[in-house]
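pasting for ref
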Amino acid sequence: MSFDLLHTAKNFAWRVGAAFRESGQALERTGFILQGCYSFEENISRHMPLTPMRHMAPEVEKGSFVAPSGMLAGNVTLGKNSSIWYHAMVRGDGQTVSIGNNTNIQDSVYVGAVTEFSPPVVIGNNVSVGHGAILKGCTIGDNCLIGIGAVVSEGVEVEAGSIVAAGAYVVEDTHIPAGELWVGSPAYKLRDVKPQEIDYLKSLPVRYVELAGQHQAVMQLLRDKQAEYIK
């Protein structure tokens, strides 16, 4: 008899506790919605965005943003106010990768060397690398744009202020002079960069610095909320 009463009491306490928890979560979510914040719907990936490889760890300057599903691995340096976006992969396990200031590596980009004998990857300041692009053992000068889905092969040098168009394939050891637009597969020079395109090359990195700041704020809010629940 006493056992039945104890079991009933424990069951009642468990159900009351569950009701309190669910009510509290519902009230919190309602408060978030009223404030226009939907961070409770977000999930933070638990994988490691900064991964050491061969005793070398990525170095990230202050103010830079690495998305939770992005990854820097090995001997990689990321400059100030630069950003690595969702599902982008920057691998410094074969050769070094250096990324300058105010540069954005957009979603699903791959940056790295083909082998340990490949040239290092050097990406300058104020560079925008579009979604899904591939950069292998190449050098990209300042204020360049690598378009969506473009492939820049090993040994390629793209000088400052140039554009590699979306979907272009730049073959090995190609040299792209400053201020040129290259298109096609294999890529070739179409024309010089226009003045309005030069303005765009300058404004796009600024927009990504601002956008990265917004995403950093959301990530910090999520981390703070998780810390509260852990306590």
